[in-house]
Structures are given as C-alpha cells and as structure tokens.
Design goal:
about 210 residues; mainly alpha; two-stranded antiparallel sheet; 2 strands; disordered C terminus
Length: about 210
C-alpha cells in the first residue's frame, strides 16, 4: 500500500498524495450523504477512515490511531441511524436541535478532550506534528460525528468550527488537497445546516405526558 503515500499530481505548486486525495474525497461524499440523511453516510465514512489508516499505519502511529476512533464512531453512527430511521415518516432520521444539557455536555467534552489529547501528543511528539490544533481538529471531528449520529442540527456548527482551524493548518503543513476540500466542506456545511434546520422545524415535537392538549 506504499502507493497511497506517493504523489498523485501537483496542483498550484502543492504535491498531492493519493491517500490525502482519496480519503478526503470520500469524506466529502460522506458529508453530502449526511445532508441527504442517507444511511450510506456511515459506510462511506468508515471507508474514508480505513483508507487513511492504511496510509498512516507503520509510520504515523498517531494519525493511524485517530482513524481507528473515526471508524468506531462511524459504526456507532450506522447503528444509531439504522435504529432511528424506523420511527420516522420518510425512512430517514428526523433532525432535531440538541437540548441545552446536550450542548453543554458536548462543549465540555470537546474542551476536556482537546486538552487531554493535546497533552498526549506533546508527551509523545511522534504522534502529531502540531499537538494543539491537531487535537482540536481530531476531537472536534469526533464530537461532530457523534452529534450527527444523534441527528442533532448542531453537528453542522461543529464542522464549521473544525473548518476554521483545519483549512489554514492543512495548507501550512503541505496537505493542500485537504485544505481545498475543507473549503468545499464549508460550503456544503452551510447548505446542509440550512436543510436540517428547516426539517427540524417541520418535525413534530413530542408532547410531554400530562401537558395540556
């Protein structure tokens, strides 16, 4: 699988490697499928993680390990959507806004997770080329995927926050294709967030037991 780490082509003076290109194209497809609320979202996300794991395994242990976490969350997302779609009218999950408790829990988990992962990366420099932003992007991605698996509209906001750091960081570290893809991610995220937002407003809200009719 050494070809995954070989150069595919040169674009705007940047050397594009196969693993960077394939993994991120699959990630882009995943986001588009997520917009459509299709169950296929998660197998494609898993495949994206698998491609990058194979590319990193053996020489970038930290990057390979991160892809294992991404694949595990993808399996959770597939299980969750496969379960939740049965309760919807159109066979897809019903988007919803997170409760304030869920939002607080995700923000706290993202903050604590970023600090913990960054300290791990600093303790073992071989795991990351830039500990703090790398930890932020990794933890933010996991939080976004978790929120997506739960059908929360906020997952789009989490992706935007990841993009803010991911775009300049990828360009700065020579992953030009990732940088370009993250720009496209941003456009898709805005359209996807609008769609899920509108759908969440059309989704009937559960009536609490004992509440007046």
């Amino acid at each position: 699988m050494n070809w995954l780490n070989s150069q595919a082509f040169v674009m705007f003076g940047q050397h594009i490697i196969w693993s960077d290109m394939i993994g991120n194209i699959l990630g882009l497809i995943t986001l588009a499928l997520g917009w459509r609320r299709l169950l296929l979202t998660w197998p494609v996300q898993f495949l994206s993680g698998l491609v990058l794991f194979v590319a990193f395994y053996g020489h970038l242990a930290g990057s390979a390990g991160k892809q294992v976490v991404v694949m595990v969350v993808a399996l959770y997302g597939w299980w969750r959507w496969n379960r939740d779609k049965d309760g919807s009218a159109d066979g897809h999950i019903n988007p919803r806004f997170a409760t304030w408790r869920e939002r607080g829990a995700m923000v706290a988990a993202a903050a604590a997770g970023t600090v913990a992962v960054a300290l791990l990366f600093k303790a073992y420099p071989s795991l990351s080329w830039d500990p703090w932003p790398d930890a932020y992007i990794f933890v933010g991605t996991v939080v976004a995927m978790y929120a997506q698996a739960r059908g929360m509209v906020e997952f789009w906001i989490a992706w935007l926050l990841v993009d803010v750091v991911g775009v300049p960081l990828n360009f700065a570290n020579g992953y030009a294709f990732s940088g370009f893809v993250y720009v496209i991610y941003g456009a898709l995220v805005l359209w996807g967030m609008r769609d899920w937002w509108l759908r969440s407003r059309r989704t009937p809200q559960p009536v609490l037991e004992g509440a007046p009719a």
